[in-house]
Description:
Blueprint: H1 15-27, H2 34-39, H3 43-59, H4 64-77, H5 81-93, H6 98-105, H7 115-130, H8 135-145, H9 147-169
Amino acid sequence: MPARFRQLDYSELSPDAAGLADEILKVSSAGIGGPYNVLLRSPEMAKRCFHLLDYLRFNTTVPRHLNEFAILIQARLAYAQFEWWAHYPIALKCGLRAGLADELRNGQRPAGMLADEAAVFDYCVHLALNNRVSDALFAQTKTLLGEQQLVDLTVLCGTYVMVSMVLNAAEVGVPDDG
């Protein structure tokens, strides 16, 4: 299925959008494709989203493998193919075990998760599906991660729901080589 937005060319970007695209190109494995192709049509919003995503990807307090696991969870729950394609190799490079990611991709609760992985999985899934978590799950996750990591994880979940919605609304597919 073709994307609903044609791919922007760098040369057609406004000066403000081009400056942001330069920043995006430093960190994005998809260049100005994927969600950025959509978001750059609203440069001020794209800038604000980029700064939040930059924090959540590269400066969060959540350990990288857990952070990428949470992104994959949101991608899987939302059937965001592009998001999965972009983050699966990153998650593996950050230390997420391939078996966990593969079971998640197959719609299963991964077996053999460590306590922190299970807490992240349960927290992200319950929050996404119910828009809340139980007191017991909240307390367990807070004990394992601490307050700041829990806040960062919660914001990451919501933000990647937004990214998945942007990708799905725009019908952004996996690139031909994916």
